[in-house]
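Q: How would the structure tokens look for this protein?
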Amino acid sequence: MQGPTIAGLVLGGVLGLEGLAALFRFNARSSLFAAAVARAQALGRPLVVVGDPDAGMHTRLARAYGCGDVCVDLGGCPLCPVAIAADITKPLPFADNSVVVFVACVFEYVDNVEAAYAELLRVAGSPDNLFVVNVQPWTLTAHLYPGANWAGQAFAGRIAYAPVPTWRKAVYGLTLVGLAAYCTSPWWWPDSKPPPALTPEAAPSFEVSGAQLVGG
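A: Here is the predicted structure in token form.
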């Protein structure tokens, strides 16, 4: 098996895993959003959705969750009936322990993840009222998606996020580009095989019938 073929298989496997991770996040968003809706209805509280449901690369194609009663996003939620353009690292216009919060892959892109989590926990009042979907820390999305700053997860009232360093983004990006370039090289790189060896042509030979040798 040649090198470009192996590189193509590796690249296909990496992209396949990334696709599965995206599908898992889509399903997690859908199921956790349904759980958040049920929790809000049980408590008689508004449901605050953090993260525009139409802003993601995949959610532009198909929504994984809805707008809730109020949608909060740094750039607003243009397609939601009630939306607030706000920075979740700063005080939000909700009272303490007053809402149920659903967060869809947002902590990874804020400047201060601890401040963001603390503010959402303040308005939710309890980890039981805070539903968080994370970008899997090992994925290409966690490292290469524009604006990605953090990788980790939030669970049970705690956060475990670490910064995504520039060097790691470079390693992920260059590895991906290198695999793509190498596996496609047979289509765009000149053939590097040596030319076939030249064999000397045999000297022509002939016979003359009835010839006599004349001695001098």
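The two ends are 69 Å apart (CA to CA).

The beta strands are 47-50, 70-73, 83-85, 100-104, 130-133, 150-155, 158-163.

Upvote if useful.
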